[in-house]
Amino acid sequence: MKHRGDTADDRPQDRDDNRQIFRCQAVAEHQRLLRKDPEYRWRRREIEREIGDWIRAYGADGVRTGLIRIPVVFHVIWHTSAENISDAQIASQIAVLNEDFRRLNADATSTPAAFAAVAADARLEFALAVRGPGCTPTTGITRHNTALTGWTYPGNGMKSAATGGADPWDSSQYLNIWTVNYTDGTLGFGTFPGGAAARDGLVLHYEATGRTGTTMPGADLGRTGTHEIGHWLDLQHIWGGSASPSSTDCTDGDLVTDTPNQAGASPFNSSGCRTFPGVSCMNGPNGDMFMNYMDYSADPCLNTFTAGQVVRMDAALHTARASILASQGLVPPIGIPGPDLWSKDTSDDTGAEPNTSAQPMYLSDDIWVRRQNDGLSNQDHENPEYRTAGGSPNYVYVRVRNRACNGNQAGTVRLYWAKASSGLSWPAPWDGSVTAPALMGSAIGSSPVSVAGGDDEILVFPWSPPNPADYASFGADQHHFCLLSRIETSSTSPFGMTSAETSNLYANARNNNNIVWKNISVVDDLPGASKSTGFMISNFGEKPQELWLRFAVAKEDYDLFRWGRVLFDVPYELAERLREGRSEGIEWLSATSFLLAKPDAVIGGGFELRREEMYALNARFISNGDPTIGARVFNIDVTQLNGEEIIGGVRFALRTHAAKWFEGQCLETDHSPGPRDGGNWIGRGDGGSCCCCS
Ligand SMILES: [Zn+2]
Predict the structure, then answer these.
(1) Are 450 and 456 in contact (CB under 8 A)?
(2) How far is the CA of 128 from the CAs of 63, 342, 344, in angstroms?
(3) How remote is the CA of residue 9 from the centroid of ligand 1, in Å?
(4) pLDDT at position 685, please?
């Protein structure tokens, strides 16, 4: 017996080349399981509740400032040699994901301006696993010659060796992707969170994988993978969770409020895209978001996720998919001396000593601050906040890993704070020895830790930051602090460090995977929020330093200069010294203010800073009001160098926020109900920018 909506997706989307195409079977599979499997039905209800709670708690914060990197394994199931797709084709799929989930795709500029205002960077990275099951080295690709000539939907046979496919790797630690020869026109399907572990992951037609090698028209840019990972992170189709692609139903929503209500799927048409605007469900003037990755348009037409979708994916990653955050799938299993406690300096750190990442060493995502005790439910960094005496503390979290395959290691985590500066040294000021003009750093606490091989532990330290009023002499820089975590595995010097610590903290952090450091100040581009922050340049070393400052904006963040301007204010005495040295890429606006004019800039070549001298700098962020920026994070790194030696640095993370929309209509208030999408808008109380009403 057929139920309404039963076979939602088993309807041809295209007849190019006389070939029926079924763009996606994820929802068909989801509905099949809901009908058949009471446990799945129950788990899905629980997951939706958790995700809803998470979005209510954190959805208004904006996109994550940290990056999450997901380990991927491809299982290539082939019968003919053409189906045995190349490593290069798989690499091209990974490259697509790393563009689409960072909004770095070249065709992001094709998003119509009205929708670009709600577009968002999902801040997810993907990489082929290097550590396989049983702690074996791997390329992240497994290949299986099968006797079966083809596959059809429904069926999960490709997910088991016993039925001609390949068994999954532990789906709590890896994103499994099978490539197969679908002979019924299916391009792919991804599983929602909550299904059986043995079936979790994506199946892609081998000709709908990546963007080089063997691909078919319309599915040749790797967007089937992008779309199916959207489902894997709990996104629905943009036209609704249950309706058929050919629906004209406007009552069904996708649980995301900044996607327009849309009747049915846009056609998969390999020879062209819909014309903007394409109106359905009274969603004019801008109409359907047919360029959204969760629609059915052909690959060249797709180019964006929205801020609401990104929040939903983040909610899934912090609830039903949280185990992937601690995966060791990207840590090479070879060349490890034995049980080895460590934390990450950078998002691409794998524990090697020294860390060879091109990213600065003061960005550790393994240290984060929450202003309230959020447990592990949100692991993104917030700026610490001072509370008057007796007020509740902030909470600092430290993730400690053990990169060995097995074998426990025990140690002691020592956590410190310092007033934010690009010129920090070791052990001053972290040891409490610098007290003028106020206490410049001190210990927060210490805790024993013991971690099994391949595992991790998260420690929490309550912390009451010092009173900003004590630092009034530093001008605007009163709220910004650095954090340092050192894991000692011995009580005698060098305390278990591979390289004995010197006064150069930056080198200590790079050379020892036991030492991690965080110096990030988040600046929210929101009405009413302060868009200025500060830091100090300082010399806590033993000798005078010949300094210069380097300002760096990575290529992926060049849109910062479209967003607006970044200005720095410096004390007059320092400005005079800075002017004497070489400078490049900056523009003086007044005697004491300069503008960052280029992504790579330097100032002050060789100016002298005497021992214990320090100056406060203020950074100001001034928006051009361009509504098409969407929800992003622009990072600006300021590094202090002594000759060629890096002393330290600070990162400003400028977070932009999406325009506030509901069903294609700009919001008048923050709490407009969302009856058609089944959810409420979760805007901030301060209004927000409402730029695109027309
Ligand atoms: Zn789909």
Answers:
(1) no
(2) 25, 22, 18
(3) 9
(4) 30
Name which residue leads in pLDDT, 13 or 353: 353
415-417-423-429 Cα dihedral, nearest 10 degrees: -90
CB atoms under 10 Å from CB of 579, counted, come to: 14
How far, in Å, from the CA of 190 to the mean position of ligand 1?
7
| Active site annotation includes 488 | no
Give CA separation, 82 vs 145, 148, 215, 299, in Å: 12, 14, 10, 21
At 463, list the tokens.
Answer: 């912390």
Q: Which domains are assigned to the chain? A: 19-247+306-317 (3.40.390.10), 335-518 (2.60.40.10), 522-656 (2.60.40)
Dihedral sign computed on CA atoms, order 204, 206, 208, 213: positive
Q: Is 411 helix (H, G, I), strand (E, B) or coil?
A: strand
For residue 223, the surrounding DSSP H or E stretch is helix 223-232
> Given the structure tokens 């203020």, which residue do they identify?
618
The count of C-alpha atoms lying within 13 angstroms of the C-alpha of 176, restricted to the half-sphere facing its C-beta, is: 26
Distance 310 CA to ligand 1 centre (A): 16
Residue 8 has pLDDT above 60, yes or no: no
Whole-angstrom distance, CA of residue 401 vs CA of residue 456: 4
Q: Which two tokens stand for residue 279?
A: 């109106």
Q: What is the pLDDT of residue 579?
A: 92
Q: Which residues of 481-498 are buried (b: 16+ CB within 10 A; e: fewer)?
A: bbbbbbbbbeeeeebbbe
Sign of the alpha-carbon dihedral angle for 60, 62, 64, 65: negative
Rounded Cα gap, residues 351 and 59, in angstroms: 32
Give the DSSP letter string of 263-323.
SSPPP--TT--PPSPB--TT-TTTB--TTBTTS-S-GGG--B-BHHHHHHHHHHHTTTTGG
Round to whole Å and give the CA distance between 190 and 25.
8
Distance in angstroms (rounded) separating the CA atoms of residues 229 and 240:
17
Catalytic residue among 228, 488, 501, 663: 228
C-alpha angle with apex 115: 112 to 121, nearest 5 degrees? 110
pLDDT of residue 344: 97
422-448 confidence digits (pLDDT tens): 889 999 999 999 998 889 999 999 999
Answer for the pair 64, 653: CB distance below 8 angstroms, yes or no.
no
- Rounded CA gap, 25 and 313, in Å? 19
**Which amino acid does the sequence have at 267?**
P
pLDDT band of residue 476 (cuts 50, 70, 90) is: low
Token output for 158: 């490709």
Is 553 a residue whose pLDDT tops 80?
yes
Report the run of H or E that residue 54 belongs to, with start and end. Answer: helix 38-58
Q: Please enumerate in sequence order all residues whose Cβ is within 8 A of that of 293, keeping only pairs 6 or more positions apart, or say none.
A: 100, 223, 226, 227, 230, 302, 303, 304, 305
| Single pTM value for the model | 0.92
What would the DSSP string read from start to end of 583-594? -BSEEE-SSSEE
pLDDT, tens digit (0-9, with 9 covering 90-100), for 390-400: 899 999 999 99
* Strand residues in 5-129 grouped as ranges (E): 68-78, 124-128
Distance in Å, CA 22 to ligand 1 centroid: 10
Q: What is the pLDDT, as a whole number, of residue 627?
A: 86
pLDDT of residue 661: 60
